[in-house]
Structures are given as structure tokens and as C-alpha cells.
Amino acid sequence: MSTPNMEVLKIFIPFIVMLIIIGFYYVLMTKNLIRILLGLEIITKAAILAIIVAGYVTNNMAMAQSLVIIIIIIEVFVIAVAAGVIIHIYKQTGSVDVRNIRNLKG
Amino acid sequence: MVVFSSKLIIGAISLALTSIMITILMFQLNSPLAAVFELSICAGLITVIFITTISFVKPATEEELIVSRKRRLKKYIYLPVLVAIAGYLVSLAIRPLSLKLPEIIQETNVRNVLWNLRQVDLLGQAIVLLIGVFGIVVLFKEGRKK
After folding, report:
1. Segments forming the whole domain that contains residue A66
2. Taking CA atoms, what residue in A is nearest to B120?
């Protein structure tokens, strides 16, 4: 007999796995840098949801919420710096296609 | 929508909508503080950053959009099937799962956890903040020189 918290886990885990697959598929298939960033955002959303569900299931919401707050703040900086890098690449190469930035290859 | 939209701006707005949906789920799961952060930062600030970045990039012409739409359809046609199969398999795999979860109720106040228990994380966060600011300053300084 499973507890109500376990039922929540069973409902959310397939949803989280689906979000992660969508994010990874998007990152792997696209060549556009902005779209890659959008894919990373989807994966982060899945991670945030997983932490919240884990906190709910283990009855430790305070810890889960504090972790999520820290992740969200770090995520903003990652996105801001990545956006700056993308704008810089666009100014240098005139495109946001990853195939046009092969000059860094060794 | 984020994946299938051929226009970047629609993708960014769809991501904001996904954030709003996750916010609602967070409210349902008794985490209002994290939900407020998700709504204001992920659905608000990050969308603004994305739209600003997209506005810097040259928009695609109508012909390019038609070509990319066809290419995208070919690329992502397997995605819904893959996602549906993965979701079904995972739900089948976890159905018989009946773990005895521990009753952990250590601290119920988020403020106490954040400021007393997770001080090292806050330090790391401050370092990331400084590195982020430094990165942006370096990137735009280089641009100004040219």
C-alpha cells in the first residue's frame, strides 16, 4: 500500500522524465545557439520540478524551496552570460549557427 | 510549442508559459516561495533576457521560415512518439514501487534553512554572481574597443 506522497511521486516522475527528454532532444537536434539555450532552460525546469517533488515526498519542503531558489538565481546568471556570449558571437560571425563557430576547434 | 515553433520569439514566450505552469504545480505542492521566484524570475526576467537576445539577432525572412518549418517538422517528428513511449515506460516501471520514505521534518522555515543551514550555498551563489558580472563586463568591454 503506497502513501499519498508516493502517489505524487508516481504522477510527477513520468512528467519530469518527459521534460528532460524534450530538453535533451532539442539541444542535440538544433544548430541555433538561442534554441540550445531554450533547451537548457527546459532541462533546468525538469530539475527544479524534481527537487520540489522530492521535497514534497520526503516532507522537507523548506530545504527543497531553498535549493530551488539558489538554482533559479544561478540559472539567471548562466542565461545572462550565455546570452552575452551569443550576442558577441553574432557580432563576430553574423549568425547564431553553431556550425559557423568552428574556429575554436583545435 | 517551445520545440516546434519556427519563430524564436514564440519559443521564448512558450517557455514563459511552461514556467507559469510549473509555478502552478509548485503552489499545489506547498512551495509558495519557490513558486514566486519561478514566476518572477523564470517567467519574467529570463523571458526578457531571451527577447532582448532575439531582438539583437537578424530576423529570418519569410522564405527562410518556410524552409526551416519543413526542416523542423522532419527533425522533430519523432519527438512526441519518443516522449510518449518514455513517459509510458517510466510510469510502468515506477507503478510497483512502494518505498518506505523516511519522515524527515527537520526545519519548516525556509529563511532558517537558507540563512543558517545553506550558508556555503549562499557563498557559492555570491561567487557565481561576481563571475557572471565579470563575464558580462569582459564581453561588452571587448565590444566597445572595436
Report:
1. 4-97
2. A70
Q: Is the pLDDT of residue B49 over 70?
A: yes
Cell of B101: 520514505
> Contact B125/A6, CB-based, under 8 Å?
no
Separation between Cα atoms, residue B70 and residue B59, nearest integer Å: 18
Cell of B30: 506547498
Please state the pTM of the whole predicted model: 0.81
Domain CATH code at residue A42 = 1.10.287.3510
**From CA B47, how far away is CA B38, in angstroms rounded?**
12
In a domain, A102, yes or no: no
CA distance A86 to chain B (A): 8
Asked, for residue A25, whether it belongs to a domain, the answer is: yes
Give Cβ neighbours of residue A40 (< 8 Å, ≥ 6 apart): A23, A27, A78, A82
Single out the residue of B52, B15, B116, B57 nearest to residue A91, CA to CA. B57
> Of B100, B38, B17, whose CA–CA distance to A75 is shortest?
B38
Q: With contacts defined as CB-CB under 8 Å, which chain A residues touch B56?
A: 87, 90
Exposure letters B53-69 (e unless 16+ CB within 10 A, then b): bbeebeeeeeeeeeeee
B50 contacts on A by Cβ (under 8 Å): 34, 37-38, 79, 83
Task: Give the total number of structural domains in chain A.
Answer: 1
Residues B26-36 have pLDDT tens digits of 998 888 888 99
Q: Which of A9, A22, A64 lies closest to B79 in CB terms? A: A22
- Classify A95 in phi/psi space as left (phi over 0), alpha (psi -120 to 50) or beta: beta
CB B33 within 8 A of CB A69: yes
